[in-house]
Amino acid sequence: MKLLVTGGAGFIGSAVVRQAIAAGHEVVNLDALTYAACLDNVASVADAPGYAFEQADIRDRAALEAVFAKHQPDAVMHLAAESHVDRSIDGPGDFIETNITGTFNMLEAARKYWIEAGKPEAFRFHHISTDEVFGSLGATGQFTETTPYDPRSPYSASKAASDHLVRAWAETYGLPVVLTNCSNNYGPFHFPEKLVPVVILNALAGKPIPIYGDGSNVRDWLYVEDHADALLLVVQKGELGRCYNIGGENERSNLELVQTICAILDEKQPLESGSYADLITFVTDRPGHDARYAIDPTRIREELGWRPSVTVEQGLEKTVQWYLDNRPWWQALQDRAGVGTRLGTGTAA
Ligand code: NAD
User: Fold this and answer.
1) Coil/strand/helix, residue 268
2) CATH code for the domain in which residue 262 is found
3) Dist. CA 169 → ligand 1 center (Å)
């Protein structure tokens, strides 16, 4: 397939691009290269014969139409978004423009292209979204594909709006769409301001490891390579008009997650005395911090035969090792203006 992947220089998009090229697909990577992007994430495939990069902003409809006309993709995987919950609280405007208006532009450019191409049956518009659109859970229960939407942050509200637009374009115009809503990703190439890298990098620097509130917020942790694998399955085999929840089957509180990372670091790079966990520092909670997210992945497991390949402990082991082995990658990003050691513990943690 020829896949048009938006946001392919970001964390999840780059995993999709790398896996798609490895699987023999052609990929057009469309990305505006915002602060969150890093072309080094796709350096390993940049010279592959089936790979092309287009720097374009999804807020620019004409630029999108030109990319569709030039590359004639078989399917779209739309991941480009503003993704950091804390940034959405500080400045929601970019989230509205990119996540809502940008998705509207993508839908309209895709619809124009699809009509002009004679409405090919195999065409798919795959929208990648978050479990945060469902709101917050108590101690029990899980999000299913029919859970009512109840977004609570500017980020999740913008993603909920974009999900609604995608469904509306399917109902109103017949655009062939599939949607996925996933839980918290972690893994290699995760931007340094998100929770897992913040913990690893602060620990290595001997700095306090910040945890919001009392660390009891629970998330379901999904290894990014497993997520990319699921996304490539859905774009090829998912039923049209259908939504699939993708989870890691690995619920952990933030405190448990941080303690696991510290224990892995204690093994891999022991301190002269004490544990990295001694650096854990509880900080004032994020406003409106959702208590618990959990995904029921029954549909994707039963209909498409997908399951995560690793536990969170196995995935974190690989992730910590990757950060130990790839210091130049994260140091270069940390040196960029505006990237600190802020936390991100929403879906886009
Ligand atoms: P990311 O922030 O790492 O990457 C986003 C990419 O989109 C960047 O490369 C950026 O340059 C690009 N982008 C941003 N604005 C753009 C614009 N206006 N035009 C073109 N490109 C633009 O994000 P991520 O963590 O890889 O998330 C990818 C997608 O998955 C997002 O839609 C996000 O909402 C969704 N998601 C992420 C998680 C998670 O845990 N990270 C969980 C659920 C859903």
Assistant:
1) helix
2) 3.90.25.10
3) 21
Cα dihedral 93, 146, 181, 178 sign: negative
As for how many domains the chain has, the answer is 2
Q: Is residue 11 lining ligand 1, measured as CB closer than 6 Å?
A: yes
- Find out whether 244 and 180 touch, Cβ atoms under 8 Å: yes
> What does the pLDDT look like over 25-35, one tens digit per residue?
999 999 999 99
Verify whether ligand 1 is closer than 6 Å to residue 348 (CB atom): yes
Q: 211 has which bridge partners?
A: 282
Quick check: 215 and 253 in contact, CB under 8 A? yes
Ranking 98-102, 105-109, 200-204, 335-339 by mean pLDDT, the lowest is: 335-339
Domain assignment of residue 202, given as a range: 187-219+252-293+310-335
What is the C-alpha to C-alpha distance for residues 19 and 16, in angstroms, rounded to an integer?
A: 5
Claim to verify: residue 39 and residue 140 sit in the same structural domain: yes
> CA 218, 219, 220, 224 torsion: positive or negative?
negative
110 and 72 assigned to the same domain:
yes
Whole-model pTM?
A: 0.95
Nearest atom, ligand 1, residue 155 CA: 34
Mutation to probe ligand 1, out of 5, 6, 19, 34 (largest number of atoms < 8 A from CB): 34
**Which atom of ligand 1 lies at the shortest distance from residue 129's CA?**
44
CATH code assigned at 235:
3.40.50.720
Q: What is the ipTM of this complex?
A: 0.99
What would the two tokens of residue 90 be?
A: 């500080």
Residues 30, 148, single domain; the answer is yes
Report yes or no on 328 lying in a domain.
yes
Nearest to 130 by CA among 211, 222, 226: 222
